[in-house]
Specification:
The structure is a homodimer of 321-residue chains.
Chain A: H1 4-11, H2 20-30, E1 36-37, H3 38-48, H4 54-67, E2 70-73, E3 81-84, E4 92-96, E5 102-107, H5 108-120, E6 124-135, H6 137-141, H7 153-182, H8 186-216, E7 227-228, H9 235-243, H10 249-272, H11 278-320
Parallel strand pairs in A: 4-6, 5-7
Antiparallel strand pairs in A: 1-3, 2-3, 4-5
Helix pairs in contact in A: 3-4, 7-8, 7-9, 7-10, 7-11, 8-11, 9-10, 10-11
Chain B binds a DNA duplex (25 and 25 nucleotides) through residues 15-22, 37-39, 51-56, 58-59, 78-80.
Amino acid sequence: MQSASEFVEARRPTGGRRSSKRDFIVDVFLRQEGHLSADDLVDLIRHEDARISRATIYRTLQWMVDAGIARRVDFGEGRFRFEHSYRHPRHFHLICKSCDRSFEFLSSDIESLLEEIAAARHFSPRQSVLQIYGTCEQCRTGRPSRALDGSLTEAVFARDALRIAIATERSGLEFYTRATRLTKDTRGRQVFERLAGEEGEHLAKLEARYGELVAARPGLEAEPTFLFFKGAANGLFAAGSKELRQGDGRAALLIGIRCERGSYKFFKRYGERFEESEGKRVFLEFADEEREHLDLLRREYRALDARARRRTAVRRRRTSA
Amino acid sequence: MQSASEFVEARRPTGGRRSSKRDFIVDVFLRQEGHLSADDLVDLIRHEDARISRATIYRTLQWMVDAGIARRVDFGEGRFRFEHSYRHPRHFHLICKSCDRSFEFLSSDIESLLEEIAAARHFSPRQSVLQIYGTCEQCRTGRPSRALDGSLTEAVFARDALRIAIATERSGLEFYTRATRLTKDTRGRQVFERLAGEEGEHLAKLEARYGELVAARPGLEAEPTFLFFKGAANGLFAAGSKELRQGDGRAALLIGIRCERGSYKFFKRYGERFEESEGKRVFLEFADEEREHLDLLRREYRALDARARRRTAVRRRRTSA
DNA sequence: CTAGGTGCAAATAATTTGCAGAGGC
DNA sequence: GCCTCTGCAAATTATTTGCACCTAG
């Protein structure tokens, strides 16, 4: 896994010069969680030791934003705050107006909708800001609310990515199991059997990986959901499963192709948009699996279709003879 | 329809004192479209005549925000802008970083997801900010992009609300037509026939209303979509339609109840959250229609169910006798 | 040696505030 | 007359900049 300094080195712009003060500021900044104002950072620097000018702090913050080490966020307070992106995927915010704390989340469904809306308006989106202002549980009820532990964000993201993959896999397994049961055609049924087997194996692998992840980090499973999803992709198989009709292997293959394609596209595109992280890897590896299934289904569909056409031709020849 | 001054009077806070300067500022502000900075408003005031202090402008802007006449928006420029809410429903923004123009939109699907996410995190949302930063069509291709004409926003909102209602109505009509065809049971079939008839009538009414709206405002239909929706409610009937099985009236009624309830809830809740406007009325009136259908379906279901149970009881008695 | 990087103090920019006077009710 | 609103100028807050000096490559 990438260390904080590797993270910075990988982003250091060419042409610039090294400076111990800047390195020190960056180091202090990366050790913080949450959203710091420029002033917060000045205080931290002052406490840690050095007398570094306010202007340098501002200049270094700008430098980090340009380098992709920091993100500038705006909670409407009339000043900006900064959060680092080291082991911290991009996200949206819930902001409590009562205690001024903020909580992070992400939603693949919302991100898909945003892309569609931008496309409908012929707009090229570069970045989205989404903030829900209101009152947190703690301020409303007094009960301490689970603020997502900042140091766990990356692990929570990976956890949620795995949960999505597992849900999709389960849905796919169900689809292929049902397709196996329904399909009359031998060759078609064999394809579904094979895919059901693969989905089962892969599901077991994903579940093992999930088990390892949560075993290594106490309390990880209890952390609130970070990445929300409602079947942007995994709803596909459930819908496809309903459409399956008794017997028809070719129709079933077509439905399978549609489901796998949707799933592949979702995981590929969504995965690609993330910074290097376990969660990103989960999405991309999963996309690869779906891609293989998709290719297999397409090959089989073409084969079955060719055979069907040959038969029709033979029948026609016989009829006309 | 409410005039600008009625709009202001309805919101004027009690206890305050009237002032001609403030009235003048509010008047100038309400005549503007788009997002003004405090400075823009100062310039406007200066041009219109008066020498009013900058401080008074700021104080009046704050006063308008508190009264609900203005909304403060923050495009990350380091200063705030203000938009009035007279005939202007709340919305989200697409913001072009190249030409600094902004484009408005709303999405019922996103708003539903936001509510779900807030609920999952035990957070009481009060207000959401959603901004998509990027490049607009015009800046990218040179082709003039349709900026939604500000003076039409309310009409466009009404247009889109009607489109949603019409799409839902069509979907409902299809559902009941299919249910009429499939249902064996006479009484059940009659319910569906009646509802299909009502949906048909209501559909015609909505279409007429849509026709009037667009006839009164040239170019309204060509305006880009403001309110995006992908079947937060109207997908229900399509899904329900697929589930209908041959013959079973009670099952069909249950599916109908589920669809109407979903539809009713969506239009009711969504409509309630808007400021007084034609679009809001469309949603709420539509919700009332759905409510009536829902009640009818429930009554009929109970009747059919009671009858079925009586029959079972009679059969049992005969068997045991 | 030279292009950056830094400190300091001054500049900028948006917004707020203290206070004396004006004006509604 | 009282309490709110207004104007003006000064204050505040966040951030940027000019310029002389410093320092890594």
